[in-house]
Amino acid sequence: MIESDVKASSVNPVDSGSRLGSILVASLLIIIGVITLYDAASYTDVDSKVFPQTSAIALILFSTLAIGKQIIQPTAVSGIELGSWWRRIVLVSSMLLSCALMPYTGLLIACVLTFVLGLIASMHDSWTNRKAIVYFLSGLSIIVCFYVLFKFVLHVPLP
Questions:
Q1: How much of the chain exceeds pLDDT 70, in percent?
Q2: Among candidate residues 113, 159, 106, the one with its CA nearest the CA of residue 136
Q3: 83, pLDDT greater than 80
Q4: Nearest-CA neighbor of 25 among 83, 90, 95, 80?
Q5: What is the DSSP string of 82-131?
Q6: What's the pTM value of the predicted model, to 2 decimals?
Q7: pLDDT, tens digit (0-9, with 9 covering 90-100), for 121-151
Q8: What is the mean pLDDT of the chain?
Q9: How confident is the model over 111-116, as a mean pLDDT?
Q10: H or E segment at 152?
Q11: What pLDDT sits at residue 121?
Q12: How far is CA 12 from CA 5, 34, 73, 76, in A?
């Protein structure tokens, strides 16, 4: 009996703090989604409602699924690595900087800046000239495609 108790406790290495943190973040995202749905309901232009409502519904749905997964089958990941905080700060800061610069620089320049800073924050391997060129051209093509999609196909007014 004692041997099976020890074995059972060592098999489940789930950190309860990490599990609770994941549930709290997903709950916060659900609240943000609900606030977005409420705000988008007040938009007078019907076309302006579609994107924020769709994004908010997806955010609520996937956050609910994340909570369900953490309750039913929690992950064994121990949480946030201590050496990666600067990456998170750079990523969030680049997004906020992009939002602040967008009215002055336009969407394309702000998105390129966010992409470059986000790439720097997320790159774990060593940089080579080839990687830098491939990543920059890939990111630039994705940004331009989204710009063309929103500006010319969906006729979304962009800064």
A1: 84
A2: 113
A3: no
A4: 80
A5: GGGHHHHHHHHHHHHHHHHHHHHH-HHHHHHHHHHHHHHHH--SPP-HHH
A6: 0.57
A7: 888 788 889 998 999 899 999 999 989 998 8
A8: 83
A9: 90
A10: none
A11: 85
A12: 11, 34, 11, 8
CA distances from 11 to 8, 14, 86, 118, 156 (A): 5, 9, 32, 36, 52
Q: Is the pLDDT of residue 117 over 70?
A: yes
Rounded to an integer, what distance in angstroms lies between the CA atom of residue 147 and that of residue 142?
9
Residues 6+ apart with CB under 8 A from 66: 22, 26
Are 48 and 39 a contacting pair, CB within 8 Å? Answer: no
Could you tell me the two tokens for 55?
A: 């994004």
Task: Report the alpha-carbon distance of residue 114 to residue 105 in Å, rounded.
Answer: 12
Rg, the chain, Cα only: 21
Give Dmax over CA atoms of the chain in angstroms.
69
Provide the residue count of the chain. Answer: 159
In angstroms, how far is CA 62 from the centroid of its own chain?
Answer: 12
Cβ atoms of 101 and 109 within 8 Å: the answer is yes
Residue 70 contacts residue 23 (beta carbons within 8 Å): yes
The CA-atom distances, in angstroms, between 137 and each of 55, 58, 102, 114, 141 are 27, 29, 21, 14, 6
Residue type, 140: L
